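Q: Could you predict the 3D structure of Aspartyl/glutamyl-tRNA(Asn/Gln) amidotransferase subunit B?
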Amino acid sequence: MTEYEAVIGLEVHVQLSTRSKLFCACSSEYGARPNSQVCPVCLGHPGVLPVVNKLAVELGVRAALAVGADVKRLSTWARKNYFYPDLPKGYQITQFDQPLAEGGFVEIESKNTSRRIPIARMHLEEDAGKSKHPEQAGDTSTLVDLNRCGTPLLEIVCEPEIRTPKEAHAYLDALKQILEYCEVSDCDMEKGNLRCDANISVRSAGEEGLGTKTEIKNLNSFRAVERALAAEVDRQTTLLKDGRTIEQATLLWDERTGDTQLMRGKEESPDYRYFPEPDLPPLVLEDGWIGEIQSRIPESPAARRQRFVSMFGIRPYDARVLTASRGLSDYYDAIASRVPDAQTAANVITTELLGLLHDRGLDIAACPVSPGDLTALLNMRSEGVLSGPLAKQVLVAMVESGKTAEEVIEKHGWSPVDDKVQLDSWVREMIEANPDAVAAYLGGKESLLQFFIGQVMKRSQGRADPVKVAEILRQALAGERA
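A: Sure. Here are the predicted structure tokens for Aspartyl/glutamyl-tRNA(Asn/Gln) amidotransferase subunit B:
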């Protein structure tokens, strides 16, 4: 039993998939020319009034329902006051004491067990801009891009129930998957569409109270979250063992050095002088509208994994791979019930198709082979129309050309060969080319039969019927013995 344990809570900021900002009509598209997507509202000019983006509220509700949270029929807006160069208004419109939703959970898997991480709250808020620091030697200037100002965010705060950095990683993976399935956000961390701050404290194992916490910022990947938390656990544990005091602070993670660095003393709620947003009325949601959103919530990743295993009989590992994204799980779901062997379909997709797409820099959304076309190919294979090796060649050509299996077979002349004269010829050529192996087979090493079949299939470029090849081989080798 370890002497100390970590208590971890994560604050995840997700950019919602809207075309415009939270309180104005400016575009929220990524990558535009700096400061080209701004207006008096998101710049905080005097006299302007914000108007709430209905789709942003809907996406927030959708996310809350997807994790089983309690969506509040009434929530309120507040001003969070602080100075920063990329916050031109000098305050951020957010939700404070009456958030959009509370409760719910995210289920994480660890080895053969699962655990629920409870959600404390979910609230809507606008994003700030972005400060850029030129990397040229001697340049100490800072540039500000305000395009992100006003971009709609959903902040998801979990209860401090995460105990290890690995659990934190698993929680983020599971949450990201849920948000993507629900099309709440694309969660692209490279674009800043999913960001995470981590709160952590260390206490004696078994203790009920909480230790002094620190908050880690500048975490731009799930791997960085895990590494930063591990480093901070080590740092705080060392301090406690030495009888020293942990000071509450906000820390930055340095990926290069692999350690945390002091950014500033930790702020508390009073530091931000929260007060009700005077320009926005409370957000009032009707039961009927919430029910309509609930009816459109898709099957959760966890539920789909369980269904794939129970309904199609595939291995749990393959179910996890196939539900990694909604697009991939939809693709497999469209095939599995239309083929005689769902496990073979899973194997082909996870090992062959995904490998071909990866080599070409494609994801499943851009797959040139439709679910219907792959179903047809798999059925040809299961019916013995195509051998396994030939089916692989056909799939490669389908990915390269975007054509159906029938079109590929006709173009390349890959129709299966079951003519006995041709099969006899390939078998005879193989026997004459491998006298030592034939002698070993005749001497009792019958496992070489699979080698012989493989050699014949190679000569036929995968077009031979392997069942008929095996039959002819046995007859031919028996003749050799005689």
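Q: Anything worth pointing out?
A: Residues 299-412 form one domain.
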